[in-house]
Amino acid sequence: MSSRRVVIIGAGYAGVMAANRLAGRRQPDDLNVTVVNPGADLIQRIRLHEVAAGSRATAQVPMRSVLSGRAEFIEDSASRIDPVNRHVYFSSGREPIGYDTLLYAVGSGHTSADVPAGAHGFGDAESASRLRARLSQLDEGAAVSIVGAGLTGIELAAEIAEQYPRLHVRLISRGIIGSDLSGSGQHAVRSRLAALGVEILENTDVQWRDDSTLTTSGGYILTSDCAVWAAGFRVPGLARDSGLPTDAEGRLIVDESLSCPEYPEIFGAGDAVRVRTRSAATCG
Ligand SMILES: Cc1cc2nc3c(=O)[nH]c(=O)nc-3n(C[C@H](O)[C@H](O)[C@H](O)COP(=O)(O)OP(=O)(O)OC[C@H]3O[C@@H](n4cnc5c(N)ncnc54)[C@H](O)[C@@H]3O)c2cc1C
Question: pTM of the full predicted structure?
Fold first, then answer.
């Protein structure tokens, strides 16, 4: 019996977990698992705020230490998926590879285009290292403004305040802090931030005047020695550019079994997909 080829695009948490589960099956020989990722390290994104604040040296782990030895690894970036002929093309120009089953797991981040001039973007390993260097240079009493109070902004504010009690940390939210959390969750977040001395500004939109000055929607001027942009959510455009069904943000649309209804041999997992439930589909 010839083995089926499973190609996994993206080796973050979703891609590596899927590859290891497939490669670790009792009878793995009927499947050939290939993982494609642009870097040779797994980036533990949930640790990036610790890297930025200096409480952890790195969030990078060598891919080969976490990825099953049974999975083939291609260090490259997928540039296009041909869902009709079932091929994946590469940015480097290497020969495209075919697949029987594809897992789309390209994750999320921000693009530098989203980040206002003068602000530190935050969301990947490079931006975490840059922020770490900047924070370590700040003097006693310097102000750090973090714009965007989703979980990333909250975690970053708390970590910086904890590691740098000499800095004044400010967290600015367009809405309510932790709006996705339960009432008790919001209360716990607020209490912890307050205990760490984090200044919280809610229902506040900001505009960048220059690299150290923000104007709030209420007309206040905030000066900071370091402004961090932790807002916004972007996914790679690969699915959309490949003609696959996506939502307005470019996330691959999958059903409850994580398969793409138009191309059932394509599955998606992680940040880069939108699961459309049957009830949502019925409602349009
Ligand atoms: C500071 C911070 C703290 C967080 N804390 C938490 C938390 O406490 N709990 C929680 O649940 N979540 C947290 N998150 C969110 C969490 O990190 C993401 O939900 C998670 O990383 C998504 O996993 P993923 O595998 O979908 O994508 P990612 O981890 O983003 O990995 C995607 C991979 O795909 C690769 N890729 C992209 N494009 C291509 C391409 N064209 N070809 C090949 N490969 C490609 C990328 O290089 C990357 O390696 C946090 C995020 C941040 C930034």
Answer: 0.92
Ligand 1 pocket check for 105: Cβ under 6 Å: yes
The answer to whether the beta carbons of residues 9 and 238 sit under 8 Å apart is yes
Instruction: Please say whether the beta carbons of 100 and 6 come within 8 A.
Output: yes
Per-residue DSSP letter, 112? G
pLDDT tens over the chain, length 284 residues: 578 999 999 999 999 999 999 998 877 678 999 999 999 999 999 999 999 999 999 999 999 999 999 999 999 999 999 999 999 999 999 999 999 999 999 999 877 777 887 788 888 899 999 999 999 999 999 999 999 988 899 999 999 999 999 999 999 999 999 888 999 999 999 999 999 999 999 999 988 877 678 888 888 899 999 999 998 889 999 999 999 999 999 999 999 999 999 999 999 999 999 999 876 554 43
| 241 Cα–ligand 1 center, Å | 20
Distance 196 CA to ligand 1 centre (A): 27
- Here the CATH number for the domain that contains residue 21 is 3.50.50.60
Q: How far apart are CA 147 and CA 136, in angstroms?
A: 20
Which tokens hold the place of 13? 């948490």
> Is residue 239 located within the same domain as residue 225?
no
Q: What domain range includes position 239? A: 4-108+235-283
Does the C-beta of 250 come closer than 6 Å to ligand 1? no
Distance from the alpha carbon of residue 41 to the mean position of ligand 1, in angstroms: 13
Q: Do residue 63 and residue 75 come from a single domain?
A: yes
Protein residue whose Cα sits closest to atom 8 of ligand 1: 46
Ligand 1 site, residue 238, Cβ cutoff 6 A: yes
In angstroms, the CA 195 to CA 200 distance is 12
Find the 8 Cα to ligand 1 centroid distance in Å.
15
Split into its structural domains, the chain has a count of 2
